[in-house]
Structures are given as C-alpha cells and as structure tokens.
Amino acid sequence: MEAIDALKNRTSSPRLTGDTPNKIALETIFQAAMRAPDHAQLRPWRFLLVEGGDRQKLGDLFVKAKREDNSLLTEAEIEKTRNKTLRGPLILVAIVSVQAHPKVPEIEQVLSAGAAIQNILLAAYALDIGAIWRTGSMAFHPTVKSGLGLTSNEKIAGFVYIGDRQGKERQLTPMDSQRYFESWPKKL
To answer: Quick one: which of 46, 23, 25 has its CA closest to 34?
Structure first.
C-alpha cells in the first residue's frame, strides 16, 4: 500500500478477531512507531504487549479498579468491564514516559508518544491488520496504572487493540479540509 493511501484512508477497526499478528508484521509496526517525530530522541513512550490469557488478567485488573470506585457493581457490569480486554487478540498499552529535559517540554513528549501510536495504527492499516486506539476511564485509574507497573512520570495514553478486522471496513466520506486550514493573516 502506498503511504499516501494509508494516510488518507486509514480507519479504526472496532471489531477484531483472529490471532496476534506474526512477529514480522509486529516488528514492522513497532519500527513504524520508532520513527515518530521525537525532539532530542527521548523516545518518551513504551508499550506493554498483552495477549492470550494475560488479557483476562488485565480484565481482572479493570474489575478491581471498578470495584474500588463502586462496590455495588452488578454481575453484568463486572462481565462488561472484564470483557473489554477481549476486544482483540493483542493489546498494546501505550504509555507516555515523560522525562525532564531543558529543551523538550512535557506537551511535546506527550504529542510524540501520540505520533508513535498513530504510526502504529497507520502501519497496521498498511499491512491490512485491524487496529483501534481506545482510552476510557481505566487508562486514568490509579489501580490500573499501579497494576501495570507505571512509574510516577508515566501515564497511559490508551489501549491499542490489534487483530484481524471483523466485518467490512467502514467507508469514509470526503472531508472538507478548507474548514481547518486557513491563511494567516486572513485575506480580506
């Protein structure tokens, strides 16, 4: 697939199935992440790979966090929370690892990590692998952050689910870029 085609046509795949992509495909995806814009080459990100039975362990961690917030969860709410981690065969927990640096502020490092995630999504799409970036309340819960071993300078940017697309790819409608790009100063 041509790079411009991937950039213009990438869609998220909310329904995923199948197996974890093979090691060659994953390494290609990981290498794409490493090429994200990154002032001072800090690599202010890291990713945890969660697959197989470990997805259930992550689901249990989500349930533990939810129960801390609401001890009266119904069985249906518990199952819904636990099953979120089964949305795809592979989950990449995207972690922003901010580092003190005199020339690279925190916002720039967070954006760099976001660019690495976007590169993952683009590479997966180019390889005909489904992917979706989800966040949700579990990304911000202290119990989840602790259970995943995050340090005090780290935040979860989201959960990237990867697998085979289930169903048809969503058809995109052309977007009017003129609403979002304008000359400055404004021409009268």
So the answer is: 46
Determine phi and psi for 43, rounding to 5 degrees: 50, 65
Quick one: 31-167 is in which CATH superfamily? NADH Oxidase (3.40.109.10)
- Provide the sign of the torsion angle of the four alpha carbons 43, 135, 128, 25, taken in this order: positive
C-alpha 139: how far from chain center: 10
Q: Quick one: tokens of 67?
A: 């129960």
Tell me which amino acid residue 105 is: P
Other Cβ atoms less than 10 A from the Cβ of 186: the count is: 6
What percent of the chain stands above pLDDT 70? 100
pLDDT at residue 171 greater than cutoff 90: no
Domain ranges, ordered by start, for the chain: 31-167
Say what the pTM is: 0.94
Q: Mark residue 166 as left, alpha or beta (left: phi above 0; alpha: psi -120 to 50; beta: remaining).
A: beta
Measured in residues, the chain has a length of 188
Judged by DSSP in three states, 99 sits in: coil
